Amino acid sequence: MPDQRPDLRLRVVQSRFQNAFFHELAEAIVDEATRLGVPADVVTSVVDTEPDDVFVLLPTHEYAVLEGGQFLEDPRIAKRCIGITAEQPSSSHFDANVYYGHKLGAVFDFSTLSVKRYQDQGIAAEHLQFGWTPTWDRFVPDATGHDLDVLFMGCATPRREHALSKIGRQLWSRRSRLILSDNAAPNTTDHAAFVTGERKRELLAGTKVLVNVHQADEPYFEWLRAAEAAHCGAVMLSETSLHTEPFRHDEHLVFSALSSMPHALAALLEDPDRLNRLRRNAYALIKENPFSAGVEKLVSVAHDLRKTHEGHRLKLGPSRTQPFRQKVTPSWEREPESIDAVRQAIREIRLDIIDLRRRVSTDPTIDPTPVVDYRTPAWHRRTPRVSVIMALYNHEPYVVEALESAASGTYGDLEIIVVDDCSTDGSNETVRRWMDRSPHVPMTLVRHPVNRGLPRSRNEAFKHARGELVFVLDSDNAIVPTGLERLVEAIDADPEASFAYGVLQRFDSTGPVGLMGVWPWEPWRLRYGNYIDAMALIKASALKKLEGYTLDRRLHGWEDYELWCRVAESGGHAAHVQTIVGRYRQSATSMLSLTNISQDAGFDAVRESCPRLMSGALELQVDVLGDWLSNIRAERESRDVWLSNWEAQNA
């Protein structure tokens, strides 16, 4: 029989607007406390406190930010509160927890490293070791079929994106998924860039290797992530960490320096016996360390607090009425500075120079009409489903790599249309020679007798495209071998989508340097700038309806961004592939370098073509829709729980 403690009620205090993961953790604590015979519940609204109540703030700093300091500023209540924290010692959140920790009756943390840092600050913190809990258990001893080879889940940081770009080849050559969340505001519910609850556990149960990279340079071990993986049978490959006990390298998981992580990941995936041994050992370890032991220690401390502090009947609860949001003002809504006018003038001068060069270098006797320069024998043999279009201007060193990447991938039902925008180097001849070596590839080379610019070149290429899907590939970039196949799968899975895009590996002369395209389709993000590269698979019907790429000079370098904005403005949407599909060459001489001198004119033009999007009207619609979907999901989950209980009682 559980030890009955009728003089104590444990109340886990949660914000209505906080990260969903902490709600999961709160439910696990309540479940384990209840099994121990301690009345426990989760508090998310105003409550009448009773003398027997001891409160658990999970996590401390987040509740204070989201709901106010009612449980922290009154000493009569603060000394009846236990703070549970899970923040890295190098973060500002940890500093906030130190401030509140001096006010609270007790502090617990899941990391022994954090506990030591609290103790160094004069706080008598204790370790709350997370272990096995039945509500998270999804382990299947003899599981063989996994939907994913590699999974990453975590908030996006430059450090993590750089590390993930380094294992790009392993990611695109395997079945992988990158779920990078945006922590600018709490992720309160399950969505495309953040998984929680049962969907997360199902995802982990179907994954061979969970990759873990630290947010910052401090080797902080993400203990909870390791515990979740062990519950579900995913083997964790983590960046080298400190204070990992009781997890041990190559017995329960694998630790690796970032520099050797590509090799470590490949070695793991190629050794199924080792994977199976690690997953079994990790599950056995977590089973030997039940979470109930940690919760029992938490309950014991709570019982001591109850005995040493007089109870007071007070009405306490949240003060916030609206969800927390980090206020970010679009750059074009800020007060202009004198330097902005100078930057805009510099940009206009440089664009004038480009136009002047075109006019000076153009022979007035030349007919500017585009001409078909060359076609491979395979061009007339069939009509492929995908047309790869490429605008080419003076990229002789890179264009063959771009062509090879498209032609040698796992998706073969394609044609290639290259529009040479009057290159002055050997680009045209280089493409011709490649076509002679690749007669089996359906391909057309179109030449502009005079230089006309990127958007006209893309629109010209689109005129020659015969496929129902159009993939835009810049002549200095590349599509990874599986990229086009993944994008086509995404379009087929979402027939209403106007286009599909995925994560890109950024690289320069030194190698991979980061990622781009990590966020899913969220129109509100477009108000703040572009986050989707031109390298996307677009439905030809959608591109035709939108009349192709804009020719507005103010949008020089922003033609793809303006196109995505018009998709949103017209009510369309995109499908997002959460793995690497292409490689983006990062160069100081790229078009973005000129475009980003000044963004004022570009935003003015986008506001003219997409007034609803840029005014924020679509953002409100998205919020309302998100709230509605969340309510529907909550109702459905409640119904499923009720039905399961009813079936168990009537079996």
Automatic annotation (TrEMBL):
The keyword Transferase applies. InterPro entries: Glyco_trans_2-like, Glycosyltransf_2, Nucleotide-diphossugar_trans, YkvP/CgeB_Glyco_trans-like. Keywords: Transferase. Residues 184-287 form the Spore protein YkvP/CgeB glycosyl transferase-like domain. Residues 387-518 form the Glycosyltransferase 2-like domain. It comes from the Bacteria. One of its GO terms (molecular function) is transferase activity. This is Glycosyl transferases group 1. It comes from Lentzea fradiae.
